[in-house]
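1st attempt posting a full record on here, be nice pls
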Amino acid sequence: MPAIGAITEQLPEGVTAHVFVEVPQRSDLTELVPPARGTLTVLERGTAQPGSLLVPTVGTARVPQPVYAWVAGVKEVVTEGWRS
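the predicted structure (as tokens):
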């Protein structure tokens, strides 16, 4: 989570961040604060498979173009996300 915060803090003026994070429980986000310019979407999956909420949510998100994406996660989730 520290990398997400560092990236959003260093965004150039005029850039809006749309951060999507999937975690087993919200309490796992003790270090993450919403970006100053943008949104933070927290997906609490409980015992569901990693990516089960993240992939469909990001796949249907409406974000302005052009998009710069920084993606990190379990290999299968990241791979599935790019295929969707």
